[in-house]
Amino acid sequence: MTDETTPPPAVRQLRLVVEAGDYDAALAFYRDVLGLPERIAYTDGEDDRVAILDVGRATLEIANPAHKRAIDDLEVGRQVAGHLRVAFEVDDAQEATRRAVEAGAELVAPPTTTPWRSLNSRLDAPAGLHVTLFQELDGEEGVPPGVVTESGAGDDPAARRG
Question: What domain of life does the UniProt record list for this protein's source (predicted)?
Answer without folding.
Answer: Bacteria
